[in-house]
Structures are given as C-alpha cells and as structure tokens.
Amino acid sequence: MTEEGLVENYHSATSAQRRFADPIVFWDETLRDGEQTPGVHFSPEEKLAVAERLSDAGISVINAGIPVVSTEEAEAVRRLASAGLKAHVLAAGRTVPGDVDAVIRSGAKYIAVFVAASQVHLRYKLKMTQDEVLAASVAAVRQAKSAGLHVAFVTEDTVRAPFDFVERLYKAVLEEKADRVVVSDTVGIMTPLTFRWYLEEFRRRVKPRDWSVHCHNDFGLAVANTLTALEAGVTSPHVCVNGLGERAGNAALEEVVLALETLYGVRTGIRTEALYGISRLVEELSGVPIAANKALVGYNSFSHEAGIHTHGILANTLTYEPLQPELLGRHRQMILGKHTGKAALVEKLKERGAVASDAVLADLLRRIKEGTEAQGKEELLRFLTEYRAHFERPGVPDAEFWRMAKEAGVPGVTP
Ligand code: MN
Questions:
Q1: How far, in Å, from the CA of 196 to the mean position of ligand 1?
Q2: Burial letters for 327-355: b for 16+ Cβ neighbours within 10 Å, e otherwise?
Q3: Domains delineated in the chain
Q4: From ligand 1's centre to the CA of 188, what distance in Å?
Q5: What was the pLDDT predicted at 49?
Q6: Segment 146-172 mean pLDDT
C-alpha cells in the first residue's frame, strides 16, 4: 500500500497486540449461511460453479450445505464432494444421528455438527437441558469421528450462553477429538473489544488448537469482529461472498481478505484478483444486489466524480484510494457529472488524443454540469419502485401461498 515516505502506516504501532495464525484457514459459508439469506436458493449446478471459483481462489474449506434439508441439497453436497476440488468440502448437520449419517453418505470428508448453546435457545427452541445438549454433542462428534470425518463442532449463539456451560461442552467434544471448534456470534451482538475479551477467556478455559468464529452483521460489525478474532489468534474465519447470510449477513470474504492483506500485510493465500468476479457471480446467482457503496465490490468503491478527488487520483492514486482496484480484479472509474473538474476532462479527452484550450474546457464543463442537473429522476424512481417491491416480499407470494395451502388440503383455506 505505501510508497516510501508518502503515507504513514500506524498499524505497526499495534503489531505487538496481534498474533495471526499461520496459515489462516478460510472457511466459506456462502453456500450454506449465504443460501439461508431470505429469498436465496442455489441449484446444485450453481453451487458447483461458485465452489469451483472459491476453490481456485484459494479458499480452504467450503460449506456445501446441510444434506438433510432436501434431496436437492443432498445432491448438491454429493456433487461438490465428488468434484475433485482443491478445497475441503464440508457439510453440516445437527447433533442428531440422522443428520450426521446424511453427511457421511454425502461423501463430504469434513463435517460441522451444530447445536445451540444459549439458555434462550435451549429452553424455547431445542427444549433440551444443558446435560442433554452435551450428551447429544458428544455422541454426534463420536459418530462423525468414527466415520473418519474431520469434525468441526459448532454452537449457535455461543457468545450469549453461560460461559461455564460453554467451557464444559467444548472441553467434552475436544476430548472426543473434535478437530476444530467454532464460536458463533449468531445475532451479531459482539463488539471488537468485548469479542477480544471473550476469545481470550475462551482460549484460557477451553484451550482450542484450531478454532473458528462465525460472525453476523446485525450491527454492521461482522468484519470488524472477525478481524478482532484473527488478531487474537483464531485460525479459521467464517466468511461469505458479498457478506451474504441470514438477516444482515455474515462477515464478507472480500473485506476480511483485503483488510488482512492490505492493512496488515498478512499473506492469506487467497488470489485476491479473483474476488470481484466471484462477487459478481454470487450477486447474479443469489439475486441479492451488491449495494452501490459496499466496501471493495460496490459499484462506487473505485469511482470518482468530485473535481478535487479526481485531480488527486490522476496525480497519484494514493491520495484518495487505500488500495488499487486491480488487486481485486476491477478498475477505477471516473464519472463525468455535476462535480467534475477540469483535470478529469483533460484526461478523458486524451482517450481520443484530443487537447482543448481552457476556454473550450470551461464550456464543456458547463455543458456537463447543466446536462447532469437537467437529468430527471423518473427512470431511477421506476427502477427503485420495482426493486423495493421485489425485496420487500421475496419468496412465495402471498396469493400463491394460499393457493398451495388449499391444494395441500389445509382445512378451511380458500385462496
Ligand atoms: Mn449463521
């Protein structure tokens, strides 16, 4: 990022507080948690297409899905497991024998067995006691290990569970030789400082060798919390392309990777120039548009319009860009509009070898500004209205649901 002497880099002032694992094992959740985004569904072919790209980019572990969800899901996991990917294909299941069995039959060599840990989940969702959760977890890990699988043990809502129970539970599965343990901030309530404290405490009590974090973005902190976890020595971050995932999503793959590479100079082993292409593919297949101002992969992330900024960028990109767009496989854009200045115009005219006098440039600038200001917003509003209608009600439309309910024979239902 730095050219000698041009910008200061104060990250070195805090380097003693960071202990990154080497290597950092990227565990992608796009095809599991990402697919659980409301309205999102990937076919087996689509899952394979994404998995191939992720594997080629250097992702180590790919969660393909939960085989007991449906026959199509089981088929997708089988397809990925037999595709000869460089990445390890993982499938997930609850701590029940049938789920673990479905993963074993899928051919996936990695499994994530999951159960909830917090009291609210135990009492209202699982209707299980802590002892019952512990017994089911130990049995599931034992079942998966005896089938020769690499086993990750996951609890949902770890960070809202009683620590004594978390300690007892994780120690029990580690005694069963679980290979990796996962701490989840399922509803995204951690902050970097509290999460650092939590993870230090977890390390002290549980003594994990290989551990992951699963961070949600309900408060927009998923990437920050994931970075905090990596700084604390967590070995394997859960990430999703474009930050896809339930509700506000998970930690974005591209943001975690580029923060490590660019801000801290950590070599992640990820081919960063593949990330933009993967981002656009997942945008298309998921139908979840990338926000224009999304970090790194948003449409505006490397666009400049304001005269002062454009002038700076043209002189040296370090003025207003912390990293080069080519690093992600994309290009910067100079936008001509209301805020355009002379330097951008001179540069634009060079595309055709044209040079203009100051007077002509001033006239051209005036035309561009007036043209922008005269542009109506009707087309944009039409587009936004359709967009909102789609996202305010994804999935099966209401009328369609009631028709299905009648067809299925629900008594007393008329469409
Ligand atoms: Mn999740």
A1: 20
A2: bbbbeeebebeebbbbbbbeebeeeeeee
A3: 19-286 (3.20.20.70), 303-374 (no CATH), 380-407 (no CATH)
A4: 9
A5: 98
A6: 98
